[in-house]
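## tool: complex_structure
## caller: assistant
## args:
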Amino acid sequence: MARRYDSSTTTFSPEGRLHQVEYAIEAINNAGTSVGILAKDGVVMASEKKVTSGLLAPARTSEKTYKLCPHATCTVAGLTADANILIDQARLRAGRYAYQYQEPIPIENLVEHVCNYKQAYTQYGGLRPFGVAFLFAGYDIHHGFQLYQSDPSGNYSGWKATVIGANNQAGKSLLKTEYGSSSSSGDEMKTDENPAKDETEMPTTVEALRLAVKVLNKTMDGAAASPDKLELFAMTLDEDGNCVHKILNAKEVEAVIAEVESETATAGDS
Amino acid sequence: FSIQTILTVSRHTLPNHIVVYFLPTDSVVIATDQVNARSILMYQQNLDKIAELSSHSAMGVSGPNCDLVNFSEYISKNLALYELSNDGMKLSTHAQANFCRGELAKALRKGPFQVNVILGGYDENVPNGGSLYIMDYLGSCHKVNYGAQGYASNFTLSIMDRDWEEGMNEEQAVKIVEHCIRELNMRFLLNQSNFIIKVVDKDGVRTVKADSDPSDN
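## result:
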């Protein structure tokens, strides 16, 4: 019955839905997972690299993580070709803002611009929406470190931690229980004299990286984690206050994976 | 779309408009004349040529009245739009100045704004708080401690060269600006006794002194 209202992006169904937009969101649920976590001193994003063939030439550039400007980076879940267009838009916007104001673009401003661009494809022109979801990680002086998620509809929201791509629901439920509970306070009993903290405590970048790997372990369902399947990214500030965008090398990824393994192995031991 | 007539870009700014400005440590003092006149006619002597751009920034403008008003309003309304569109986020003085300069530069090869501008503002996260930018109709922009636009500069720059010091307070700065104004009243050919002085500091923009038109009463 919904078939009649499927084909055009720019038509509502009788139930008030835009089916093309929903189908675009579905397309992303088959893509490689990406998790983003906001830390006290930075933002962390971990992505699953889907290797489709052993014959593929080793990639010199990432197909998940992209730098947008000196203080913002994004990860992608979905159609890479679609993503490239939007990443270009984001880079142009950041550059033009910097030219006009001689200042770095506030992150929300950048995200909103990309999202407005996406939204146009759900309302005008009869073209299909972009089949991409993004995680934007960035820093500005107004709001510090920030993490945003956006989807084909052009909606975006700020997150402390979130997951996009395959098995994102499993990832999100893990984050709900594990984000903000630091290992030291987790053992204390909640009593009347010692009520549970209402505010979640933000992890450090190091802790966040471990949590991100944990999430990917869950969403990748049992496949053994290794540096060629995972891409870990961390954004922090150096002593001069400049953003450092770091994609961890194989050794560093190995180290994080090993830490997570030993943590889960000893979990539950008193 | 306005068409440029009468005045060519290569001519210096009209003699009648004078802007003087000053940067004490924690604030900015801007003064302009209040004259609106053309040919042999004096239209008014109480024109406020210092546009308030945001809660903590202001821009003194000089040039033909049409461009002066048009440009002031264009910049101040665009900056107001920025705050509305960005959830109240304020643009720093540096960013506002560069935006303003960019608009002058863009218009230069299309239909130039024949205005000279000085933009001053207060930012919390800037050392000493106050900052001052001087721009001309060709789109140049420079951060300065003090300066003047138009014929005023011939008379007042030397005073400010001598008297400006790092770490002055607002009271001292206003005194120097008043000295400049007295000098102009004494030595400048065109009588422009009415001046408006505004100060931008941590509490915002306020008018320190403004003269009135003879027809005001």
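## assistant note: Strands of chain A lie at 34-39, 42-48, 65-69, 72-78, 132-140, 144-150, 156-158, 161-164, 230-237, 243-247. Helices of chain A lie at 19-28, 80-101, 107-120, 168-178, 205-219, 250-266. Handing back to user.
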